[in-house]
Amino acid sequence: MKRSLLLLGLISAFVSCQSESTQPKETQRTNSTQSEGRMNIAYVRLDSLVENYEYHQELKSQFEKEAKKAETDLQKKAEQFQENVRILEQQARNLSAAELQRHQAELQQKQQFLLQLRDEMTQDLLAREQALNEELRNDLDSILNIIREEGDYDFIFSFEPGGQLLSMDPSFDITPTVVEKLNEGNANRKAAKAKKEE
Question: Residue 159: exposed, middle, or buried by beta-carbon count in 10 A (0-12, 13-18, 19+)?
C-alpha cells in the first residue's frame, strides 16, 4: 500500500511539473534534468523485455528441458511402481501371509522413495529457477544502471499490463535500448565462452 501511494505521489508530482511548463513536450523531456526540480523518467515494458531478451529465452528453454526430463524420469519410476503393485496383486493368492506382508513393506518403501524423489526434484527445480531468475535480474540491474547513468534518468519504472502504472507515454519507453544492450551482453558472453573453449 505504501509503495502504491509513493508511486502515485511520484507520478502526480511528475504530471504537475509537466503541466506547469509551457515548453513543447520534446523540449521538456530533453531539458528535464537541466531544470531545477524536474525529473527524467523512463520505463521498460516487461512483457517485451522477456520476449526479446535472447539469454532469457535460452535459459527458459534449457530449464523447460530439465523440468521435462525430471518429470519423464519420475513418471517412468511411478509406472514401474504401479507395475510392481499390479504384479503383487496377481501373485497375492499364491503367497503366504508372511511373503505378502514382506512384499507390501517393500512396495511401501518404494512408494516413500518415489515421494521423496518427487519432493527433491521439485526443490531442485525451484532452486534452479530461482538461481536463473537471480542471474537474469543481475544482468538487468547492471544494464539499467548503465542506461540510467547514460540517460541521466532519475527513475526507470517497469510497465506491464495490469500493473500499477496504468498508462505511460510511449516516448518514455526505453525497452528497445535495454533489450539491445542485454542481447549485446549475451553475445559477448557467448564469444568469451567460445574463446575459452578453443
Answer: buried
